Fold this protein.
Amino acid sequence: MRHLMSPLDFSVEELDQLMDLANDIEKNPEKYAHACDGKRLATLFYEPSTRTRLSFEAAMMNLGGTVLGFSSANSSSASKGESVADTIRVVSCFANICAMRHPKEGAPLVASMYSRIPVINAGDGGHQHPTQTLTDLLTIRSLKGRLNNLTIGFCGDLKFGRTVHSLIEALVRYTGIKIVLISPEELRLPDYIRDDVLRANNVPFEEVIKMEDVLPKLDVLYMTRVQKERFFNEDDYIRMKDFYILEQSKMDLASPEMLVLHPLPRVNEISVDVDNDPRAAYFKQVQYGVYARMALILTLLNIKVD
Ligand code: NCD
């Protein structure tokens, strides 16, 4: 039985197969409409989410399956003090597969050790968010036609942004990748990723504070929200929250081919006037997220459709 904790749980070849499957689902959704008839997905969300939880639920429903679960720790027995290990043993009796989001790093990994069903990490604290990474890779591959030879800029909260951590770990396995890290001093990428992921893989990278300086050379700009819930001090958050705002005047500096991605939710970091720019791909990214999760559910449940 396989779980998904980190994007590295799949080899590059396996990821390619998963993305091929996602693109086939995009083209022929009716072929997959009953692939999960009789199967059930549990969504165990101990932390708020709109996109990820609904995207998982839509993915399972598109496959003909059903869903059950909870959307906050308060509405589950966690509020009575139940451990993640016990919860997953119980849920293993109710569902065939589960997606778990938790504010504590490593909680889905603990769950996977006690589970009788595949567990998908749907975000654990500031650590990893592998299904957002599948979504991001699929979006880039589908819209740019490749995952090699790309210069990718990450902008905003690179310290707490788990989607950034997961995507960087996944990208360094492709060739010709250059990374540009755009953040204020206080929100720089954690050392362990700079050293153990970027330096260890000899991936060229630079760190800048001003977005304007690097925009012209980017193939992809990955914008992120300042992660309010992970700040210890409200004043620091207020000081940081509007550090970057991508507006049309900045888009004018970028290549006509550059893609703008954002895992969403957006707060202020992308001005709404950018939404109509053909390079704004963040809502298409949401749609790709459903195809990616459909492909993942089929893969982990080992269901083949011909
Ligand atoms: C992200 C997350 O939860 O880490 N959202 C998402 O899943 N699409 C990004 C964020 O909350 O800023």
